[in-house]
Structure formats: structure tokens, C-alpha cells
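Annex B. Sample input.
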Amino acid sequence: MIADGAGEDEEKWLAAGAAAFKQNAFYMQRAIDSNNLKDALKYSAQMLSELRTSKLSPHKYYDLYMRAFDELRKLEIFFMEETRRGCSVIELYELVQHAGNILPRLYLLCTAGSVYIKTKEAPAKEILKDLVEMCRGIQHPLRGLFLRSYLAQISRDKLPDIGSEYEGDADTVTDAVEFVLLNFTEMNKLWVRMQHQGPARDKEKREKERSELRDLVGKNLHVLSQLEGVDLDMYRDTVLPRVLEQIVNCRDEIAQYYLMDCIIQVFPDEYHLQTLDVLLGACPQLQPSVDIMTVLSRLMERLSSYAALNTEVLPYFLQVEAFSKLNNAIGKVIEAQEDMPILSAVTLYSSLLKFTLHVHPDRLDYADQVLGSCIKQLSGKGKIHDTRATKELVTLLSAPLEKYNDVVIALKLTNYPLVLDYLDSENKRVMATVIIRSIMKNKTIIATAEKVEALLELIKGLINDLDEPQGLEVDEDDFEEEQNSVARLIHMLYSDDPEEMFKIISVLKNHFLTGGPKRLKFTIPPLVVSALKLIRRLPEEGDNPFGKEASVSATKIFQFLNQIIEALPSAPSPDLAFRLYLQCAEAANKCDEEPIAYEFFTQAYILYEEEISDSKAQVTALQLIIGTLQRMHVFGVENRDTLTHKATGYSAKLLKKPDQCRAVYACSHLFWLQDQETIQDGERVLRCLKRALKIANSAQQMTSAARGSTGSVTLFIEILNKYLYFYEKGIPQVTVESVESMIQLIKNEESLTSDPSAESFFASTLRFMEFQKQKGGVVGDRYEQIKV
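Annex B, continued. Sample output.
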């Protein structure tokens, strides 16, 4: 046997034990080869004595045990051959019990017992009962555990099960179950007792070692699950109550967690469904430190998978009231464990919700009930700040969206927004983003104002900053991405009914205008677009196409647009407000609403004068004014003259001379519209072109004075192109002489040849004129008159 010297380390003990083991195994094999039963028993007993050590860790002891297991298989074959040669198996069974030490004696007894069962000279149940009782002689936790593991291993194919060759009378199945249960109970007791072996400072090490041995105990439950005779009735009446009794009574955290998980994993799902109340009844009785969250979550995952793979069993879930039992069990577990972390409670309800959504997708009341139970557990705890708990809460809230792919269904859950309120500001934004992504991914249309109101309550983390704590900094890129997602969402809020659609955009306005100024530049533009789309859908006849009692009209929508755009300059986003005013003016133009169009233009002009000061922004804004005003046909003479006069005035006041020149010649288009005879004033067109030419001359002189060189002629070439455009349109005031004069002016400029880009531009213009001549017709005849 291995010496128990205090100074020896484990590797040396194992090496010494293995060497002695190998030596005795050699002599045992030599005795077997010579058919010497007496010596075979002698050396096998000495070999097995090496397993009596208390100095090896479970891992090292397992190494030694596996060597013994291999040698005992050889010995079992030898015993079988001896019985065939005339040796009485009964005598053999008694002979092995003469070994001096109890541990080798019991290993040999189990080996001989296996042969005894094979010979069928006695009922298997009697031999197994004898063996399982005799093994009580070893009470050392580690040695006893491996001995009983050996007994379980050699007996698993010799149990008197239904269909087995060792099946006896009608009650032998019960005997087989009783044998396995008794062996399981004793093994669990030994396993649990290991925690008390050694000093308290080594507790963590012992727990790790115990975890390494758990499969030895769990194999008994696996054997039970494989027995043909263990049907639902026997499982419900005998197996499960006995196993649960042992689990609850052992009062050991590691054993309770592992064995509960073992039950869930090894026995059929059908059995779990039919015995839910029994299985769940044991959960509140477990130790408070047991990870019951994981155990119940795995149970619900298995039942969900079972329902998904076998749809015909769904009625049974309702029949056994699986949901109610699980919900009640979770409540009792949380109640029994007063110190249960929020994370565990939320995870349990998250698993229950997933179970409900998979098994009872048509029962929204069940899903809402889960959320209600979750609220009950969270009540009084305020905002959740535990990172893992909030992540799990987001998972719980995401489950209905992932299952139904339809936010509208989630909006029917009355407790959904109440659970959402327990998230902090950051996680509310995360959850809001999840909701919006679900809508966009599934192209879900929210078609009523009531549902839109409910949806905005769910995503208020993105559209409202009133409840954000002071000092909370949000990354600008993240903020922009979030607000852009809200902007995209607006286009999914749509109704074919104009009145309902107006209610929707009114709800959006109320939320957006109270959401803080920094969000307005993202949310107002898509809201304006939605309102403009609504205007296009209105019938054209009359100001109030829905009759006297109608709640929406083009005029009312324009008033709505004016109200929301007014909020933008304070954002501050004057450039954006300016553009939106011009868009609305164009929409009013299509609706023949002159006063409204004029008001929108007036607001745009005010913003231009008071808010837009950057020279580049002014140039861009003026181009937009001119372009929009050119397309307007609704204005009368007086209003149009006022607006065009203002536009030309703005053009002359730009800071840079080239910008002035381009803006002034662009204004010429405001006085000549080919399709409107009322807006064809050739004199004012010519006046604009001449004024642009004067400014171009002035710009060139300023450049010459400041830099000592002649300025570029590009502006002159651009003005020439405007002359050609209006000449081609047939404006009488733009004559052949004026065009030829411009061409000659450009040719006389010294800087033309020194500026390759200007020279190329002028050459392209001349080629265009030549091309127009070759086209023939009226246009060709007009260009023929120009002498280059």
C-alpha cells in the first residue's frame, strides 16, 4: 500500500502506488495464465489494496482506479472461465470474501457477483441487493464513491429490466429501480460528506474536487432514464419523489444544483411536463445559494424545444397548466430566497416569457402576466443600475419583438411600458433603438394615432431628454445615429385615412417639440415631409374637401407646418428652417394658396436677413430663393414684384463681387418664364444682364488694382452664356449686337490666353454656337445672324 509519509508529495505517492499496482497485476496475470485461482485472488487483493490510500486527490485517485478497472475486467473473464471449467460460482462468490481488507474484498465481491448474475444460478435482484448492502462497509467518501461507481458500472447491463435477459417476475423492474436508487442515495451521501474532509481553509479546493466527481453520481440517474420499465407512472410515483427527497435532504449547494440539472437533462420532456408540480415543488426547498435561476431556465428551454419539435403536444401544455405552474413556482422561489439578486429574478422571468412566447404565442395575456409578475418583483427598487440585470431586462423586453416581428403586438401588452420604466436613461435608449430596428427590419406600419402615442412612450428615451441626469454625456456620433433612426421611423407611421394621418403627425409634433432643441434638426424635417405628402393626397377641389365637419384641410396642415418650422431657428438650425420654408412655399404654390405661400417666403426672407450671415451660406440660400421663386406661379403681380425685388436686392449686397455677379444674372430668370406670358419682361432681363456685366468689370478692376494683374474673364463668359440663353428664347431686348459685343469684349481681354480654364470655357461656348447653327430651323437661323 502507498505509504502515508507526511513529506511525500502526491506525484510520488501515485508513482509508488502505480509501481506496486503494476507488480501485483503482473503476478495476477501470471496466475490467471496458469489457471491458479488461489494466487489470482491473492495478488488481485494485494493489487486492490493500493486503492485504500487517503493521500491522493480525486483526479489522481481516478488514475489508479482506472488501472484497477482494466485489471478487474480480466479477472471477471477468468472467473467466468473457471465456472465453465466446473468451479461453483457460489463457492467463488464466498471465496472472494476471504480477502483480508474490506475494500479489496468488496471489489472482488462485485466482480464475482457480476459473474454470478451472468450464470443465472440465482435471481439478479437478490445478488444486486446483496452487493449494494455490502458496499455500505466502505464509508470513506472517496473510496466508497469509486467502489459504488464500479458496482454501477458492472451492473448496468445486468439489471432485471423489461426485455432484459435477467428479467424475472413481474416485480423485478421495481427491484432494478430500487437497486439504482439505493446506490444513488448512498453515493450522494458520500459525495456530500466530502465537503467536511479536511481543514476549512481548503474548502474551495475540495469544492473543485467534488465538482470533478459529480458525473459518478449523475450516472445513476442516467441509468434510471434508460430503463425500459421506468414508464411515466413509475417515474411520477417512485423515481422522481425518491430522487427529489434525497436532493432536498442533502442540503448541499453543489449537489442540489447538479442533480436538479441532471434530472432535467436525462429524463424525457414528456415526463417533465406531466410531473411539473412535483419537480417545481422542490425548488423553493433548495438552499438559498443554489443557482435555481439556471436550473429553471434550462427546464423552460427544454420544454420550449419540446413544444417546437412536437406541435401535437401543445394541448397538453394547456391541459397541465404548465404556464401557471411555472409562474407560481418562480414566485415561490423568489419569495423563499429573500436575498435573490435582481439579475436572477429578471432572468427567471425572461426565460418564462420566452417559454410562453414559444409554447403559447397566441396567448398575449400570458406574456402580459409575466411582465406583470416581473414588475411586482421590481417594485420599490427604483431604476436598475446593475449592468447585467439591465442587459437581461433588455433581453426580456426584446423577446416579444423577436417572436412576433411586429411592434403592434408588443403595444398591446399593457405592462410592457411599465417594465421599460425600470431601465435607466442609457438603457432606455438602447431599448428604443431595438424597437425602431424591429419596425424598420419588418417594415411595420403603425396606422393609428393611439398606437403611435403608445410607441412614442416606449421610445421616449430617444425623443425626450427631460429625465436625463445632469452631467450625462452622450457621444455625438451615437446621438446622431439614434436621432437618424427616429427620423427613419417617422416614415413608418402612416395611415391611408387623411384625418387619421393628421392625428398621427399632430401626436409626433407634441412629442418632438418637448424633446429638447438639439433633436429638432433631426426630427422636424421628416415630419415636414410627412405633412407635405399628406397635402398631396388631399382632393384639389375647395379649401375644405371633407365638408363642414372635416377636421383636416390643406390650410390647416400649412398652419401646422408653420408651427413646427418656427421651432427650428431656436434649435439653432436657421439654415434648415430656411430650406423647409421654401419647400412649404412650393407646396402652397401647387395648392394655389397665395397668402400661405407668401407667408412662407416672408419667413424665409426674415431668416436670410437675421440668421444667415456666413457669405457662403448666403450664396447658397440666395440660389435656393431664386430657384424656388422661379417655379412659383401662384403670386399676383404685386406680391411677385415684392419678392423678386428683394431677391435682386440681396444679390447686390453679397460680400464678394463674383458672387454678386452670378446672383444678379441668375435673377434674370425671375423676369422671363417661357410658359407664363405674364412673367416675360425682357427689359428687366436685359437690365439684370447689364448690371451683372458692370459688376464683372468692377471685380476685374479690383483684382487688377490689388494684385497688379488682369483678373479672370470667366465671369464675362458666364454672362455671354446667359445672353445666348435668352437670345435663343427670342427675347427682343437681347439682340445680335449685344451678343456680338460680349464676344468681342471677351476676345479683347488679355487674360484670356493666360487662363487655360477660361480659354477652354470660351472655346466650348463657341462650339455650342456653331452646333446650334448646324441644327437649322428657327434656332439655327437665329444663330446664323451672329458673326463671331
